[in-house]
Amino acid sequence: MSTLKALIFDVDGTLAETEEVHREAFNLAFAEAGLSWRWDRSIYGRLLRTTGGRERIEVYAGEIGATDVASAELHRRKTFFYNNWITANGIDLRPGVERLIGNARSQGIRLAIATTTSRANVESLLAKTLGPDAADWFDAICCGEDVSRKKPDPEVYMAALSRLGLGPEACIAFEDSANGLKSARAAGLTTVITPSIYTVFDDFDGAELNLHTLDEPLSFRQNPKLENLSRLTRELITLISR
Ligand code: XBP
Ligand code: MG
User: Fold this and answer.
1) Which residues line ligand 1 (CB under 6 A)?
2) E strands present in 94-230
3) Looking at residue 59, what DSSP letter applies?
């Protein structure tokens, strides 16, 4: 009898490398509003420590002393530009993600999402990468709008567990960032990390596994260290390696 009942995925940086699209969408919204702001990769890499796009705008505005910024409207337009780009250009899921999702579905292991990003962004990403019905494969999709406290607070993962009707001992979380790891661990979840382009140097202390990607690392099969991992994680590795 499988201990592992559900996989809970973060979105940005975990399902796909989306942050460069987000960054350009922010810049388009700033330009449309007549602001001289432009977030290069260095600025954005620092601002990503703040989860939530509207919160990120407000942190930056505070740093430069721009007091009367319409952060909600700027973020609404940024979300428009982001989804326009994803819908027009598509984006690739990170290696191994689609296969793991397919293996889980075929083995009756449930799926959920716990993300800081906006719901519209999740819907467009799933539709463009996995097809128009993909959102229905997930028993819980918990987004930025569903919580009052964003990652690293555990609220979004607690919401996903509640909607799944499962305890953390039956699930594994997949994350790409230190904020996401803190959030998932605070919800009691075993967490697998796949660092992304902006999080390679994050502190991933407390992660069960730190993998380059979810593509099957061939070293899994014969690695004696497997025996040191929890049953839950060994079941995941079997699922990844199917
Ligand atoms: C990453 C985030 C989000 C995105 C931008 O979310 O922190 O804020 O950077 O999306 P995840 P929004 O938890 O999926 O890694 O502008 O919609 O917030
Ligand atoms: Mg992420």
Assistant:
1) 10-13, 19, 22, 51-53, 79, 115-118, 121, 144, 151, 177, 180
2) 110-114, 138-142, 171-175, 190-193, 209-210
3) H
Q: Would the pTM of this model clear 0.85, i.e. be above it?
A: yes
Which among 10, 153, 176, 202 is annotated as catalytic? 10
Q: Find the mean pLDDT for residues 210-226.
A: 78
Asked if 202 is an active-site residue, the reply is: no
- Would you call 35 exposed, middle or buried from its count of C-beta atoms within 10 A (0-12, 13-18, 19+)? middle
Cα angle, residue 26 at apex, residues 20 and 30 outer, rounded to 5°:
145
Q: List pLDDT tens digits, range 45-93.
A: 999 999 999 999 999 999 999 989 999 999 999 999 999 999 999 999 9
Give the position, in ligand 1's atom list, of the atom nearest the Cα of 114. Answer: 13
